[in-house]
């Protein structure tokens, strides 16, 4: 089972930290510091990014997402795995 962790070459800020005039605080901006790219993450993606403060297995990520949203692991599995694959492809997350 793969383990995921944040790439140490990333930094992030929440939408509400950028401006006190913005009402939507459900968005993160993740910067890849070596590639000078910025990605926008919101919704469930924010939860996953927060969970990745420590390395987690795919199984643990799916379980945490399912528990948070009171859904079955089967329901959230595909979306969670697809999202993780996109973060890995953007080099924001490391897969081991």
Task: Summarize the structure in words.
The strands form 2 sheets. The protein has a 3-stranded antiparallel β-sheet. The protein has 96 residues and is of the alpha+beta class. 19% of the residues are buried. The protein has a single domain, classed as Outer Surface Protein A, domain 3, CATH 3.90.930. The longest helix has 17 residues, at 73-89. Strand 3 (27-32) and strand 4 (37-42) form a beta hairpin. 42% of the residues lie in helices and 27% in strands. The mean pLDDT is 91. Helix 3 packs across helix 4. The termini are close together. The chain has 4 helices and 6 strands. It comes from Rothia terrae. InterPro entries: PQQD, PqqD_sf. Pfam families: PqqD (PF05402).
Q: What's the SSE blueprint?
A:
Blueprint: E1 3-6, E2 10-14, H1 15-18, E3 27-32, E4 37-42, H2 44-51, E5 56-57, H3 58-68, H4 73-89, E6 93-95
Antiparallel strand pairs: 1-5, 1-6, 2-3, 3-4
Helix pairs in contact: 3-4
Notable features of this structure?
globular; 96 residues; alpha+beta; Outer Surface Protein A, domain 3; three-stranded antiparallel β-sheet
CATH topology: Outer Surface Protein A, domain 3
Strand order of the largest sheet: 5-1-6
Structural class: alpha+beta
Q: What is the subunit arrangement here?
A: single chain
Cα-atom radius of gyration? 14 Å
| DSSP summary, beta strand count | 6
Order of helices and strands: EEHEEHEHHE
Distance between the termini: 9 Å
The stretches of 5 or more residues where confidence is low (pLDDT under 50) are none
Count, helices: 4
Mean pLDDT: 91
Overall body shape? globular
Q: Describe the biggest sheet?
A: 3 strands, antiparallel
- Percent helix: 40-55%
CATH C-level label: Alpha Beta
Q: What is the CATH architecture assignment?
A: Alpha-Beta Complex
What is the domain tally? Answer: 1
- As a percent range, the share of strand residues is 25-35%
